[in-house]
Amino acid sequence: MKSFLAFRLPVLAAVATLMSGPALATSNGDDDMDQKSMPVHVQMFAPANGDHVGIGGRGWFVDLAVQYEATLEQTGFTGFQITGPAGHNNAAPFPGTFSAGVDDRLPGLIVLLPTTIVGAGSCQNVANLFNLTGVTNVTTDEVELWDTWIIGAPNFGVNTESVVYAAVAADLNGDGIYNDAPAVIPDANGDGVCNAKDLKALGLASNIAKAHFVINP
User: Fold this and answer.
1) Could you report how far apart the first and last alpha carbons of the chain are, in Å?
2) Which residues is 209 bridged to in the sheet?
3) Number of structural domains in the chain
4) At residue 84, does pLDDT exceed 70?
5) 3 within some domain
């Protein structure tokens, strides 16, 4: 498989253009599942374990690379996006919707933040809040996509510890396409909190990338 890059300058430059502010991403590869038998690999560049992110709960990143042993069609990818709230929502040149739930551009991706106050809380898939999605490598049997989110509102905690999980859902309906992420993850063990155990119970095509971090006051 193609090596992941620790420095994401093209991606960060595009995000900075959208949000009018500079940013740096930190490499993080904390994988929760054995990758050997899985067709998809998720790498989390930011946040990294132990980071203290943002200011007042805002201005921090979740930054991912997703690599598939599959064709582009099989990834479920539906197009590039540069999106965000208000006037950025579904706007040219690369429109994409901006809301909690299934990402309209990468509909197999699941991202959970247990400290969220959005939607269904820890079980809410927030992948459709990602701002920037593009293709960094395509061959006949491998695809790499990059996906980046800058958090613009303190909806995920302030002055608090948090954790983020990112994974790609399995081909749950058997159509050969990784586009089956739910808007809300079932709480499989009924403990009131959705985490890696619930993701595994759902069924995944990838490892679970995760990071424990602190959201700054």
Assistant:
1) 40
2) 31, 166
3) 1
4) no
5) no
**pLDDT tens per residue across span 94-128:** 567 878 999 999 999 999 999 999 999 999 999 99
Place of tokens 């690369």: 94
**pTM of the predicted model, to two decimals?**
0.83
63 falls within a domain: yes
CA nearest 1: which of 97, 46, 65, 61? 65
**pLDDT above 90 (res 24):** no
Strand order in the sheet with 60-68: 40-46, 60-68, 143-151, 132-138, 81-82
Distance CA 108, CA 147 (A): 12
Pairing status of strand 40-46 against strand 52-53: unpaired
68-71 LR contacts (CB < 8 Å, sep 24+): 68/39, 68/40, 68/142, 68/143, 68/144, 68/145, 68/178, 69/1, 69/39, 69/40, 69/141, 69/142, 70/39, 70/40, 70/141, 70/142, 70/143, 70/178, 71/140, 71/141, 71/143
- The pLDDT of residue 91: 58
How long a stretch of residues is the chain?
217
Residue whose structure tokens are 């739910």 = 182
Domain interval for residue 207: 31-215
6 belongs to a structural domain: no
Domain assignment of residue 194, yes or no? yes
